[in-house]
Amino acid sequence: MRTPTDEEIFEWALSNGRKPSDEEVEIWNAYLFKRCWRDEYTNRLHFRLQQAGMPIEAALTMFDFIDLDDRAPASSAAVGAGLRAGVTVAACEKFQARCTKLRKFQ
What we know:
106 residues; mainly alpha
């Protein structure tokens, strides 16, 4: 059985549900973009980072984590445990620089 693509799932959702307005999409995207950044889900983000063997400072939001995790090569031990590992130093440095910029506004 073939796994549907993200686009196919999205099209199915639109055809079987209601189509959100442009404003609703913008509001939802803005909400998710900040998810786990200084909110009640920050602990979940930290847990996921630790599971993946990444420093907590590597990501500020769940989207940051997903981007890092998608680029991380999976080690055989990590695959067996259902985890991801091996984030590049450059990727961590990029997000640490972003953390530093955002902390200036806190």
